[in-house]
Amino acid sequence: MKALRITAFGTEATLADVPAPAPGPGQVAVDVAAAAVNPLDLKIASGAMHGYFPVTLPYVLGTDFSGTIATPGPGWQIGDPVIGRLDPGAGGAFAEQLVIDAAQLAPAPAGISLETAAGLPTAAATAWQALAEVANVRSGQTVLVHAAAGGVGSFAVQIARRLGARVVATASGSGIAIAEKLGADEVLDYRKVAFDHRLRGIDVVLDTVGGEVGARSRQVLKPGGRLVTTPAPADGAEFVFHTSDAARLAKVAELDLDVLVDRTFPLVDGARALARLAQGRARGKTLLRIA
């Protein structure tokens, strides 16, 4: 089968012919329809995450995927449409076929294409984990979402609204209209407006940017407000380290979320997809079309 892999850290990913993996006990094989390119893929490829997720080289990149069941397993029949997230230490989503524990899969949402559904697992589940599980966002609260046109941010705007919150978002350029379309009640152009000068009394801030944005975000919180961050641990913030959870993913898949797709590349152009994400200008998810 074809797979996109690295043979050494810091080198460009290349397409290679590799043996198809064989499912073990409790596992199923999945014919991959599409996979999402995430910042974690870039970090693993660079070697920066080797202390957290030791990988064996050569390593087939990719964690998030959508596809159809190729071999039956517990709870699944051939042809069932599914989404899932592979353990980052194992990888394997940027390939024509993968194996995964059957218990780690969720049904693909019916309201969007199977290809588009590949954008859900890490980004949407991270947004849910941050807002619903860590921050315990409740109806009537005000939530500030940074980088609202990004992968996690675009889902966070929608999820905060589903939880009954008023949503303030930061974005720029075309991202302003995107955030408004996704349901933000107020959108600040961070290139023109200093959010920490404009806002006060925020219940929850979701910082998907890091650095000085997190430090400034503490100034807008009401007493007892919560700053939740995804890029890295920070003083005064609650760090969300995303963990795979099939029940959470199934819940997210039922929310009928819009998946904001920046660009879709064929598997053969996987290196270009990684480079696109590395530029830091993607609006939403970068996807690989595999089937």
Task: Give an overview of the whole structure.
- The chain has 291 residues and is an alpha/beta fold.
- It is built from nine helices and 16 strands.
- Strands 3, 5, 6, 7, 8, 15 and 16 form a seven-stranded mixed β-sheet that branches.
- β10 (166-171), α5 (174-182) and β11 form a beta-alpha-beta unit.
- α3 crosses α4.
- It is globular and about 55 Å long.
Give the helix/strand layout.
Layout: E1 2-6, E2 14-17, E3 27-37, H1 39-46, E4 59-60, E5 64-69, E6 81-85, E7 97-101, E8 105-107, H2 114-117, H3 121-134, E9 142-145, H4 151-162, E10 166-171, H5 174-182, E11 186-189, H6 195-198, E12 202-207, H7 212-217, E13 221-229, E14 238-239, H8 246-253, E15 261-266, H9 270-278, E16 285-289
Parallel strand pairs: 9-10, 9-12, 10-11, 12-13, 13-14, 15-16
Antiparallel strand pairs: 1-2, 1-4, 3-5, 3-7, 3-16, 5-6, 6-8
Number of helices: 9
Q: State the total count of DSSP E strands.
A: 16
Radius of gyration: 19 Å
Structure class: alpha/beta
Helix content: 25-40%
Distance between the termini: 12 Å
Shape: globular
How do the helices and strands follow one another from N- to C-terminus?
A: EEEHEEEEEHHEHEHEHEHEEHEHE
Largest sheet: 7 strands, mixed
Uncertain ranges: none
What is the beta-strand fraction? 25-35%
The average pLDDT value, as a whole number, equals: 96
